[in-house]
Hints:
Blueprint: E1 3-8, H1 13-24, E2 31-38, E3 40-47, H2 50-58, E4 66-72, E5 87-88, E6 94-99, H3 105-114, H4 124-137, H5 142-152, E7 157-163, E8 166-175, E9 180-183, E10 188-191, E11 203-206, E12 211-215, E13 220-224, E14 235-236, H6 252-258, H7 260-268, E15 272-273, E16 278-279, H8 288-293, E17 296-301, H9 303-320, E18 324-328, H10 329-332, E19 343-349, H11 355-366, E20 370-375, H12 381-385, E21 388-391, H13 404-424, H14 428-449, H15 452-462, E22 467-472, H16 477-491, E23 494-499, E24 516-521, H17 527-538, E25 543-549, E26 561-565, H18 573-591
Parallel strand pairs: 17-18, 17-19, 19-20, 20-21, 22-23, 22-24, 24-25, 25-26
Antiparallel strand pairs: 1-4, 1-10, 2-3, 2-4, 5-6, 6-7, 7-8, 8-12, 9-10, 9-11, 11-14, 12-13, 15-16
Helix pairs in contact: 3-4, 4-5, 7-13, 7-14, 9-13, 9-16, 13-18, 14-18, 15-18, 16-18
Amino acid sequence: MCGIVGYIGPEEALPVLMNGLKRLEYRGYDSAGVATIDGGLTIGKKVGKVTELEKLIAANPPGGTIGIGHTRWATHGEPNDINAHPHTDQFGEIALIHNGIIENYATIKKTLESDGYTFRTQTDTEVLVQLIRAFYDKGNSLERAFRLALKSVVGTYGVAMISTIEPDRIYAARNGSPLAIGIGDGEYILASDASAIVQHTRHVTYLTDGEMAILERDKYTTKTIDDIPVTKEIEEITFDIGELEKGGYEHFMLKEIFEQPDTIRNAMRGRLQRDESTVRLGGLRTVTEKLRDARRIIIVACGTSWHSALVGEYMFEQLAGIPTEVEYASEFRYRDPVIFKDDLVIAISQSGETADTLAALREAKRRGATAIGIVNVVGSTIARETEAGVYAHAGPEIGVASTKAFTSQLMVLALMTVKLARMRRMGAAEGAQILKAFEELPAKIEETLAHAEQVRAIAHTYAGARNFLYLGRGYNFPVALEGALKLKEISYIHAEGYPAAEMKHGPIALIDENMPVVFVAPDDDIYEKVISNIQEVRARSGRVIAIATEGDERIESLAEHVIYVPRTLPFLAPILNVLPLQLLSYYIAVERGCNVDQPRNLAKSVTVE
Ligand code: F6R
């Protein structure tokens, strides 16, 4: 949610900034802007995608070897040229970019206005830069003005600032919105995440809340915004630049869908302990006893990660016998949840930065629970704030609609389930059988994805539909929810996911000959029940698309379209069943001419509440 990039070094800043903005564009694409210093301050900003900014500045590119850039996901003020970042103080000497929300901006603005400061935009960010100016005007150094302003604001921020007052410094600070500093050879690159840094250096350090950095030509300094020096650990970026490219695919989303045989392999790699028919999860070593003794699991997550949490609930209860609750992270923290010391709270997040999930996690920790994470982005805030955790290892996910991260989360939940179950009540024989099923998954994913052309043809038939219903039961109810979410997100078709048996309590009223109904109907112990639900839809002329188990010929007489998926253990079936639904939403969106990788109004990493 908003991407920030900054550069100071021997090279021209602009190409580094533009490249960084393209890498970070998935975080927001309402507008983009850059500021550089080359004698004076030059600013270019434009509503729309980074390519619009590129066109704007092509004739007169801002020069200089220091600069900042921003790609915006609008909160305060509509997306337009004026509200685009960077924002400046009224004398045009300080430029600031910001990711987050300044909650008390209106009060500060009023005070500043009465002191004679004038504003050009509706943004909270302009208030912050003017506040820095106001502190500077009172005789403080620029650094002190920066710190005093940040201490006066309530809310969240990742900010970067340059100024002609000190033309060889970038100031940056974070509270709630991520910031990483790439430490290169004689240069520093600041960014919201490592994807904008890896091209320049693998050495990176992450600011934590309440910290700031000053990047200069020959050194960088880190401290708290209370001016207490902080020594930061330097970490290694673990992914390769190639993972940030489309690799010959038309869209990142399609590439990420087809990466799933590998990403599932990566989620398992080194974790299957065949000699003991269990799973080894190094990141949970420090909490082994707490895992064994936990009386309840609470999973907090948002969006797609919440759907994987729902599958996890079924897994933990059915196989490990542990009572499990799943909470929308955004609701959890505000409803005074009852948490016991022997509760295990799991936060699931692809980005590791989702503000709601982070807040829920902090709340759980505050109330004394053991908090662990299932996170994809290495080094992200949730990964660092949990006591222990398991990385999903899906690699960078650039498409805004989550695909491979979802199945990797499911895989990690399945691994954790086996670990917990083997510590509690599952015998070695069952453990061994499950491990074998794990190992067979990548090939089965490949087999499922081989049906892409069939799914594309179905997408062609239904691309004009105005509504869709997705139905499933048990482990596949969350799959239905996920299928509906994917379609909504990228094709803007209204879609609802429902437990199949609930349909008769309301949604059945929607069914007529124009309603496509996607049934996730594997051949498991509730198969017959789902077949009855299919009959009910057919009786009302609904158009049935079924995701079914290979070899199930009976369903062909009931559904207009059947997409077959190989058989696996029921608790692993969601990993396969969701694949045709990802493809269906993808091909429908392409058919409708939608921007698949950057759907309207969305952003990949939701760092505001
Ligand atoms: C859906 C999607 C979102 C995210 C949600 C949580 O395709 O991408 O619903 O799943 O914003 O994000 P993370 O997992 O990063 O916490």
